[in-house]
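Q: ATP-binding cassette domain-containing protein, please. Structure only.
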Amino acid sequence: MEIAEHKAVANEPASKGKKEVVIEIKGLKKAFGDKQVLKGIDLVVHRGENVVVLGRSGQGKSVTIQCLVGLLTPDEGTLNVLGQEVNKLDDKELKELRTKIGFLFQGAALYDSMTVRENMEFALTRVLKITDQSELDQRVDDILESVGLPDAAEKMPSDLSGGMRKRIGLARTLIVNPEIMLYDEPTTGLDPITSREISQLILDMQKKYKTTSIIITHDMECAKITADRVVIMDDGKYVAEGTFEELHKSTDKFVKSYFI
Ligand SMILES: Nc1ncnc2c1ncn2[C@@H]1O[C@H](COP(=O)(O)OP(=O)(O)OP(=O)(O)O)[C@@H](O)[C@H]1O
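A: Structure for ATP-binding cassette domain-containing protein:
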């Protein structure tokens, strides 16, 4: 197995030649009852990087993300996000940290009784406390333009196709300027063409908004399009790491099984 040794680089200054560490997970372990799900996860994500996590179902990819944002408490290990130890934060500090993190989960989680514009404005007023109507309008129009749906503002979520809902969900998440984006299977349930468009959009948004992302996916094309780096998870650990091309060329039987 060709796992790269994860070097402990937390707390390094973002000085010349060194990339700023935005997320650092060390020795993360988590069990539910007698089921040991995470058996020692180590991961460093640098600013502006898209890291894709691959792995069969039930490996603990989502559990890792939930630990990262303080929704689950690990049994062992440390999670450092934007310079803060997640498990040492009180509720108020955790809430504050979460405003810097955008989530895009399987369902786009739009409020069905609100128009697209109202969904966006709700996020802006709640998170960024913006109340000026012209600024709200400008931000909504800008983000809808960015995700390729400039005319969707007055539509209801029920009027949108699955692909459009994903785009609007992404817009709603990005409109509050998160530093980190966490995607949990962003292309699940979409047809191959729409999946490709959403993957491309994730990449475009990373470039435009300079976000740092962890993308959990089973979609290899999504991984190919979006990943600066791929990690593969198996049996509660990360077992292989590299660029998509590096892993694609791997001779390791387990890694190769992902690329068939
Ligand atoms: N709150 C919880 N209580 C008990 N067990 C849980 C809890 N959350 C997750 N698990 C268990 O942990 C294991 C890993 O779940 P997780 O959702 O992280 O898998 P995953 O790798 O994201 O899978 P998938 O690709 O199917 O989403 C599963 O067996 C799941 O049942």
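A: Brief note, in case it's useful. The CA atoms of residues 56 and 151 lie 38 Å apart.
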